[in-house]
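Chain A, query sequence.
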Amino acid sequence: MTTHDSTPVAGSAADTAADTASASADDRRAVTGKRRIAFAAYVADAGRLPGLQTLLRSLALTNRALCEDVVVLHPGLPDAAFDAAHRLHPRLTPRTAAGRHDVFRLDGYDTVIALTPALVVLGRLDALLRLRTGVAAVPRPGPDGVPDPRHGIPDDGLLVIQRQDLDHAVPPAAVPDVPESLLVPLDSRYDFRALRLGDDLAVPEGVVVLNFADTPTTCTGPAHEARARFELDDEAFRAAYLALPGAKHPDLLLHLALPFPDGSRPPIDLVRQLAEIHRGRGHHDLAVALLGEAVAGRPDLPRCHETLGVCLMALSRYEEAETHLLLATASPDFAPRAYGQLARLAWLLGRTEDARGYALAGLESDPTDANCRSWYARTSEMVTAGATAPDTPPGEQLAHVALFAEGDENAGDKVLPEAVRSCFTADTGPGRWHQQHAHLLVDEPGLERLNARRAVIVGGGGLFLPDTAPNGNSGWQWNIPDDVLARITVPLAVFAVGYNVFDGQRYRRERFAASLRALVERSAFFGLRNHGSVARVRELLPASLREKVRYQPCPTTVARHLDRRLAEPAVREDTVLINCAYDRAGLRFGHDYGHFLAEMAAAIRAISGAAEARYAAHMPADERFVDDLRREHGLILPVEPLYLLSNDAIRDLYRRTRLVIGMRGHAGMIPFGCGTPVISLVSHPKLAYFLADIDRPDWGVSVHERALGARLAERALAVLADHPAAVADVHDRQRTLWSATRENLALLRELTGLPDPFGEPGPGADPVVPAPRSAVGEDRAAPSLRTAPPTP
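Chain A, predicted structure.
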């Protein structure tokens, strides 16, 4: 995994290179099945480079929110020949090639949109990005002048190539002969010949790509005027892109806006947009550098002060953050949002009364503000709870550092802390446990409270994630400075934590890697919840520390062993529960969300003949699936709002269904732990990692899978047809996880001195088993479904 030794300058080539390396390091397409798309163009000689540059400008100006890789194939031109093209696009990569036919064998991509320097883009290319089969092209006229798909693949026009279909169908010849069965005809507007228009005909309305192949350079007329719109110098092109209305792709916007021209004062809205991009990527220092200069001496910029305050908070520069957020409250339009952030800041610092006051001030500004209302409720409950301290002496308690969901937050994060505590003690309440929210700053009083306890347990959940409540102290979700961590004197155990970085997610690793090393060095036990996380974290550690990283399954996956009530046979309803997730939807779905939705609709219709399909929402935001499914496909699913249920009610709901099809990690792990068969919709590596750990990769299907609907329905109907065998297989897989957990808990009892809440293993207890064979190569192809139910 790549690390960066220095902080690049905003908008520099180093910044782009660092981002590219970071994205490559977190490429887990082999696990998630995520489709990688590229544009490709062959440049036969230096004389075609101006045409390439015009093509790139047209692509950016007509598709402002699109920024895929652009691979420029060439016969061996010098690197300097592409300097002008690099200035136009941040993800351009030259590659030597024997000819244009090499677009059919472009390594590292699943979908290739082949262009030529003779093309200009006049409209949106979304429809091309959604194509999933064969080789698509506008048919060329046959001998009789009629367009004929069988006339072959054009060598001077647009192509959309699906590599999956060609890997075995196209021989490694100089010019591939694509089988007729793979040809997909496109409408002529996607490759319209300018030659047809002559010097006087207007470009037809709706033309998306205009092709100037074989058109004399001396020609004039409407077609050439359309091309001339994109023949701009760099300064004019940058200005034209920045002036476009609507959302722009972050990569393109940063690349074309930075660095600012010398002597110019950029518009304040543009500065704030760029800062928001840096913030979204975890580059809070770059955002602060931009905004700090822009707002100096300008108290009249509340929106910028709010963004600056949030970024300073992410760097743990709390005093400065509070100052700028207070400046933002001067505007009635931004006061509620700023007060909500101030409430969070005060809460992070343990100033509960201040947090409550800020939340109340926000409600006075806008009584309907949901964030301020949530903070007011949370801090009011904390004040009440703080008035009744438990009678248990601190030395008899364990400290638990975790995320503790409240209200209508993630249902999985409500169940998880209780499951962790159940591994150590039968009593999971405040009498036995001191609760420390991971996001709260561990200051000197906080350190004293931790050291007063018997031990500190950190976990579980995906705490190794950079962009949920970022802080500058650790770079992950536990807000603890290294020097404070070093002064924890009681046993410290990291238990069932996950490395939750998304496929394609970029973040800086320096602070996280240093904090991680300090954490592993200090920990008496360091257990991660899947072998994928173990591998990722070991990559960030020196060799001397790697063996300290152990495998500890998420305790939700062994719930039947933690709670004897769950071991009893479940009385099941004739239902299938479905769950989807929408946080970081772009990273989850890419360009395939429409495909995913249509395939899910087909699968639900097929499954509904065997059981009632219902929807299990872990968060209110999850219900977007139900809304989209009804609007786009006319399907209505009853909703089970798990975020409103108690932990017992959540487990009971998952116990009583016959099958769960889930995208969230705990929409698979919780029902599995209760003994219910699961199928995972893989949009994040952690789902595939879990299935590898239990040696059942075929219990998952990628959300990008071309035949998602058919494969999902096939697998689900097989489970429902022989349900007892499927349940027995879940129980069998669970035993391996419980065996690993029991071994680890034996080590932890030596550290904590606590008795075993489960008693000694009885006769015939499962032996400790090694890692399943499929966990060794976790970066393999995305899991696929079996055609038959598993053998119990």
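Confidence is low (pLDDT under 50) at residues 1-25, 762-792. The two ends are 38 Å apart (CA to CA).
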